[in-house]
Amino acid sequence: MSKPSAPVIRTLETEICKMDVLQASEVYQVTYSGLMISIRRNQLSQDNKSYITYDRTSFSTRGHAVALADKLNKAFSTTCFEVRRVVLGQKED
User: Fold this and answer.
1) Would residue 66 count as lying in a domain?
2) pTM reported for the whole predicted model
3) Of the candidates 65, 63, 42, 39, the residue with the CA atom closest to the CA atom of residue 52
4) Residue pair 87/26 in contact by the 8 Å Cβ criterion
5) Residue 15 falls inside a structural domain
6) How far apart are CA 29 and CA 62, in angstroms?
7) What is the pLDDT of residue 88?
8) In the chain, pLDDT over 70 holds for what percent of residues?
9) Local confidence band at 56 (pLDDT 50, 70, 90 cut-offs)
10) Which of 10, 47, 71, 84 has the fewest Cβ atoms within 10 Å of its own Cβ atom?
11) What is the pLDDT of residue 2?
12) If DSSP codes are grouped into helix, strand and coil, which group holds residue 81?
């Protein structure tokens, strides 16, 4: 049986792509000891230039968040990375 489709809120179509904004029923955030986190990755290219990228830490599916928390716990030899369900908060102006 296929996964039920999330409701589409908005759609944008261009010549090269179609983008749907879907309603997420839940959002899951990877945290460190209960603290919200960001992950910054500093990578060196073959020409010795430094490139900074930021990895995602929130996901609309729990499985992706759990996989990242497991990966981080293994990489840092800890059990402090965990997954928390995020509830809708206040609107930022």
Assistant:
1) yes
2) 0.77
3) 42
4) no
5) yes
6) 9
7) 76
8) 94
9) very high
10) 47
11) 62
12) strand
- Are the CB atoms for 83 and 31 separated by under 8 Å? yes
In angstroms, the Cα distances linking 74 to 23, 52, 71 are 32, 22, 5
Task: Kindly report, residue by residue over 4-43, the tens digit of the pLDDT.
Answer: 678 899 999 999 999 999 888 789 999 999 999 999 999 8
Q: Say if residues 29 and 83 touch (Cβ distance below 8 Å).
A: yes
Single-letter residue type at 48: N
pLDDT band (50, 70, 90) for residue 3: low
> In this structure, is residue 93 part of a structural domain?
no
Number of domains composing the chain: 1
d(CA 24, CA 32): 23
Residue 47 lies in a domain: yes
- Give the pair of three-digit tokens for residue 49: 């230039």
Under 8 Å between Cβ of 20 and 6 = no
Residue reference for tokens 């968040």: 65
Q: Answer for the pair 58, 30: CB distance below 8 angstroms, yes or no.
A: yes
